[in-house]
Amino acid sequence: MVTLYTLSVFSGASAATHYNCNGPLVSTLPHSSFQSSSQSSASYAAHNAKLNRRDGAGGWSPMVTDQDPWLQGRYDSWDWVSSYLLLHSDTGRAWKQYRHEDGVGRFVGNVNSEAVVQTKLSHPVKTRFLRFVPLDWNPSGWMGLRLEVYGCSYKSYVADFDGRSSLLYRFNQKSMSTVKDVISLRFKSHQAEGVLLHGEGQRGDYITLELHRGRLDLYLNLDDSRLRFSSGRVAITVGSLLDDQHWHSVHMERFNKQVNLTVDSHTQHFQTKGEGHSLEVDYELSFGGIPLPGKPGTFLRKNFHGCMENLYYNGINIIDLAKRRKPQIHSGNVTFSCSQPQLVACTFLSSSSSFLSLPSATPATGGFSVRFQFRTWNPDGLLLSVQLNPEPQKLELQISNTQLHLTLHSSGRQNDGLWHSVSLDTRNLQMALTVDGEPSTTTELWEQVESKGNFYFGGCPTMDCQVLTPTFQGCMRLIFINSQPMNLSHVQQGVLGNYNELQFDTCNIRDRCLPNLCEHGGRCSQTWSSFTCNCSGTGYSGATCHNSIYESSCEAYKLIGSSSGFYSIDPDGSGPLGPTQVYCNMTEEKVWTVVTHNITAPVTVQSSTPQKPHIMKFNYSTSAEQLRAIVSGSEQCQQEVVYNCRKSRLFNTKDGSPLSWWLDREGERRSYWGGFLPGVQQCSCSLEENCMDMNHFCNCDADTDAWANDTGILSYKDHLPVSQIVIGDTNRTGSQAIYYIGPLRCYGDKSIWNALASDISFYFKTSTPSGVFMENLGLKDFIRVELSSPSVVTFSFDVGNGPAVLSVKSHLPLNDRQWHYVRAERNVREASLQVDQLPLRFLEAPADGHLRLRLSSQLFIGGTASQQRGFLGCIRTLTVNGVSFDLEERARMTPGVSSGCPGYCSGSSSLCHNRGRCIEKSNGYICDCSQSAYGGTTCNQEVSVSFDRESSVTYTFQEPFSVMQNRSSQATSVSTESSSRAREDVAFSFVTSQRPAMLLTVSTFSHQYIAVILAKNGSLQIWYHLQTDRSPDVFSPTLSNLADGRLHRIRIHRVGQNLYVQQCIFSPVFFFLGRENLNNEVMQAASKGFIGCLSSVQFNHVAPLKAALTNRGSSLVTIRGPLVQSNCGALAESTSHTLQGKRHHTHSDKLNGDIRELFSDTYSCNFLAVFSGVVTAVVFIAVCALAVMSRLLYQQRQAQRSSSSIKEEQRHSVYTDYRTELHLHNSVRDNMKEYYI
């Protein structure tokens, strides 16, 4: 037996107040108010299910044969209910399931027959009927139930609109102008279209609330002429599935331009466009339709068909005025009781076993007809199946790939969650299919067909039919066979037909995309039981678009081996801020993040006074929030300020008020100048004691006719960047100023070197075999990450669905005193755990499980709440939901924890360069350069090789090797998602004067390849040939001639759907994408080979050129022809130093020269991106045995020297068929791949 105590449930009854809404409602009800699906005997009737009563046998209990027991409206036994569903209804016919805020519909019941289980609803329900559906009960007994419901009565004013009626509320004056509006109402309807409210004015203002496709649209215009004269009005849309015949509440508040629109529990906040702050409506507001002026009964749009309740406009009870026939209300054909017909539906629950079987009614003529309505989210499912006579014919109506199929095909998407009507008629020697009242699609029949046996809806028993199509999951209603309505209540009672896995009297459809659980603008799509997120174009990946595909800083890009260039960084990782593009200067030991603004040239100022000063506002290439995140996450930031003056003072005034100043990022006025400390009106020359006039604190305050300058660096991080500058003293004769504000430059990433939540990441190193990294607890929920054994990291949690555990086991010990990376994520779709570069582990979340992690304790780092299993070692870079924790600051105030971490490899300076790995030793450190294309003790020495026409290097990788993903782009269990998150990185330098020339290829034996060549004109071309039935894609990052005998550095980088090509050259860059068939050009490049020098060749973690020099005897490396080590890569170093010298040229050195040249800033590397589907996945995913650089091209060159076999060789070579398209969603499963230079 289960006993309940339910709070905050409103029961529709007589009028009363809303105060003290906690009175008992069930105990006072008469016996007639209780109904049930069955009762085991009169002593267990439904009316005995009252809490704290001993009527009958002490409770309700159904018959043992009851297939779907329910109680609508016993003590001292072994009968109780341990879990149940709660349904509510306004009429007792159509029911709606109550769900908690996280979408869970199951309620917890009893564990014995006596205890009272109290359940407080998370949101109140206004209803007249309640139904309890037991799910589980005592396995040693049977189900039994007693209950009480607490709430209060509810006052209701109702109006019924029949689709041709409306209410008009006329104003006392011609026009009503309001600055604030409050509109509230409740409505219910079974129509997906209809106007709830409309008003407009002669100025062009309007307001419309309208049901459209089962959602609520708000159109609002406040004196915006663009909207007034445009044909496409923009709507704010809230809610979903609002045509379900259940009450929905609407509340709209507007104050000036700020609007809040709430439907049920979903709210949209927005601001109106235009210049107006008031809403001007002329004459009247209409409810239920938009009447056409001068034509009573004629409406511009489809009217509302349904009921409205408690309709208030700015505190005025519209329905009450209409009922009392007040003169300001005109009610046309509106009645004041809700008499809408209840269309009873049934829900098909299972995708494999649900069906509804109904007998055929005898038709008046030959043939048969069937019609019904359905709604679903699934793109596939069987709707109707029936055997035909004469045999062996069969008719099947199904949804296939979102469309209806019945041998005939109907167009239009049918899985949009809306109700769709279907009518099928086989009379008069033709078959006609009608969908949603559109013109029928017909086909002629050779003979008259009739139904044989039962009609199966949604599926059929396996004994009667073999159906390959998934069974239907969704709702059906209004089923007619041969024009006879089918009573679903009779089916439920066992009087009519048969069924399996059905839920009656309710359409239990839910919109899993409301609210949208896809983050960062991901697009949500759904089926009946799950949802997916399309993250393309968002800059994020993961099941819910949670993980940024970009690194968090320039420092992070350098750590993965990147060089200077423009990069997209995501300063808060998975946080709410999006990515932004910055320039990363990696030519120095410090890695500088450079953020530019709109004023790049020096500005000359004249004729400004303190009363009318010159004002310049700086707009940066990133948003204010992103700037704040970049600055706060950096160790140090600075901004150069150059002020050249002639008779233009800064602070030299009698009263001490400044003549010029600047505003910080918060808009606060700052009067200290570049190079000095905050709060003091001085310049850098004062600090250095070298001002030209020691009576003043700035050079410009000397106020001389000669040019002077006050140049310095602003470095107080909390004030940066400069947002505005004000110059006020250039109005005197000969007075002039020239100023320049440099870009914001920051270095260091505190989040990398320091030391719930849906994602946690950190680094650790330890020598102990186990320990808890972190733990957070709630009443029942918890989350924990720990080193459970020397080689196993475990992520465990409980969100209310029971404990879940994810583990990653390493083949090497993790307690090796080296840094290891851990990332754990839990979202509403799945949980994942990654350790270093080991394969990602996943665990899918249950479809209807709890969503929210309810934690109430503090987050414990390095231990647990019980102070057991503590961690002994180092943790750094702790990030939770994109927020970095300052562990060093916490360590200073926590006993047993110290800041910093012993070891050479813990510092912020990169001891090992170019992907080199720092390894701690007892007396120092060494650099592991095995995954770097560079050599030397710190992985910074170029590895260069000179080639002639006969030279080639082939590198073959023959063991399982996954190089396409790293921690910045996590994969999921779904192949298409993992494909979209793959990444590849190719980098090399070259010097040549030959054209055409083959630089590099990556290929498989299935004739798929990536080729990088120099074309006939010397331009760089990148070929992607990844599907053999379509032509290749060609990328030309530059049209310049690169076969010029100079060193060029190329980097090709792809993340998800974004392809980047970086080239360090000295000529303008152009870009185009084409699908031209350029076979001859590639063939010529392949046959010519390469004459020149290649340096620092890297493909992800493979350095083939370095392997060729250091492992000449390896079976993985094949060398043909002479191979001579060179020093051409040294040119890159000298070039970069030259550029660095130019770039840091002091802006104040020369004033008499060209001012624009004086302040110019030159970068040598261009970084370009191609977006949205150019490259969608990499061909190398899931390849078990990879090889790098193919000998196929070499074989082709050898073949061309033999005239007798050239045609045969070309036919079988990798370049035989170029008729492909770059379509990379399908993974290649070859057992060999080669990498060829």
Low-confidence stretches: 1-18, 72-76, 294-299, 753-757, 959-981, 1065-1078, 1134-1164, 1166-1237
Radius of gyration: 37 Å
CATH-defined topology of the largest domain: Jelly Rolls
CATH architecture verdict of the largest domain: Sandwich
Question: What is the count of DSSP helices, taking H or I runs of 4+ residues?
Answer: 15
Give the strand tally. 85
Average pLDDT figure: 75
Could you walk me through the main structural features you see in this protein, from its secondary elements to its overall organization?
This protein is mainly beta and 1237 residues long. Helix content is 8%, strand content 38%. It has 7 domains: 20-154, Jelly Rolls (Sandwich); 158-224 and 232-292 and 300-331, Jelly Rolls; 345-504, Jelly Rolls (Sandwich); 514-544; 590-749, Jelly Rolls; 758-893, Sandwich (Jelly Rolls), CATH 2.60.120.200; 928-956 and 981-1125, Jelly Rolls (Sandwich). The strands form 17 sheets. Strands 27, 29, 34, 35, 36, 38, 39 and 41 form an 8-stranded antiparallel β-sheet that branches. It is globular, with a radius of gyration of 37 Å. It starts with a strand and ends with a strand. Residues 1-18, 72-76, 294-299, 753-757, 959-981, 1065-1078, 1134-1164 and 1166-1237 have low confidence and may be disordered.
